[in-house]
Request: fold
Amino acid sequence: MDCKNIIIDMERSFITKDEIRNNKEKTLESYELLYNKTGEGNNFLGWVNLPDSYDKEEHKEIKETAHYIRKNSNVLIVIGIGGSYLGAKAAIEALKGNFYNELTKDFPQIYFAGNNISGSYLKRLLRVIEDKDICLNVISKSGTTTEPAIAFRILREYIERKYGKKEASKRIFVTTDKQNGALKKLSEKKGYKTFIIPDNVGGRFSIFTPVGLLPMAAAGIDIDAVMNGLRDAYKEYSKKDYEENICCQYASARDILYRKNKGIEILVNYEPSLSFISEWWKQLYGESEGKDGKGIFPASVNFSTDLHSMGQYIQDGRRHLFETVLVLQENEEDLVIPEDKYDLDKLNYLAGRKLNYVNSKALEGTVSAHVSGNVPNILINIPRMNEYYFAKLLYFFMLSCGISGYMLGVNPFNQPGVETYKKNMFSLLGKPSI
Ligand code: PA5
Reply:
């Protein structure tokens, strides 16, 4: 299929035209809750208009800071968890590939920390950066999240020892709340350069704020092209048009499938570089919809890799799932399969074929196999992966998520459930109450 825009294909979704028609009113009601800002959590909708209202001065500063980082370091460590790192990681992998750190010449290597509490992870990371020049970008909206706070404390001490306190403070960049939280206070005290996460943008919706944009710019991603994609997405997807707006189509389809007891959605990709888009997507949908005893469980697989591990279940296991497949129409890089004189592996029938051609046949074959196994498949066709389509795709998922959450009858913009583990962990650790 040749496409010039992101297109959603519902042909194999097992959803009838009548079901789609009958869901129009409900979908548009939720669409209005989002756009008119009249639904629950409406004080967290700052990301919706961001494509139109972002601060151009701040973007200039982001680019200047990225340039400074590039001039002064060969490693940038991005410290953050959840929405404070997944978007940047997804962008760097999708746009620069899985081997960015090994291949980069003009831009710093980017490592992520503070997204776990593993001692060995951080210890090994310290080994990796031993002889390198380092900058840190610590990202936390609340400024109090345990995982990034611990990593920052350790890495800050390391960098202060390495460069001295004064120089270290020029190498630390903080992305946090405008006025609250420990990080804000510390930045004031130490004179770190800070970037603001707007009050009305929650973590998992913050990729197009400095949270995602600074690490992206540091990795040489063209953030102007990202904003172009975002602006076009905003124009297209804000149209109240049930038949044409792909956000309405996707949200409506998810709602119909959920009511047909399809409680698990698997986001499928055929490109390893897209696997962190899935991680980002899982947080987005999991935290937005999984509440009040409701919600589709968001899962993901990387094909063809996981066809050798999860393929059996999807084909043949319990029928409570559906797949949403990311289909890249074009891929810049490719290789030709060579002819082999002996043909012992019996692959000569593919000699002269490109790998991406074989991959596309794996996709077609798998979609039809899973559909024949009664797994509804929604296909999201993407012309190619670049800054422009990356932004459009992620914004499409964000808007659809808002609509879909309202259709489910939950507040898509809070996450009360994530506090429970923290309460237990703090009490086990003997954290003093303030
Ligand atoms: O979506 C959310 O708000 C959360 O999952 C946060 O992204 C995550 O908990 C990190 O929070 P913070 O940026 O405050 O450290």
The chain has a mean pLDDT of 96. Residues 81-84, 140-142, 145, 148, 202-204, 287, 415 surround 5-phosphoarabinonic acid (CB under 6 Å). The chain has 18 helices and ten strands.
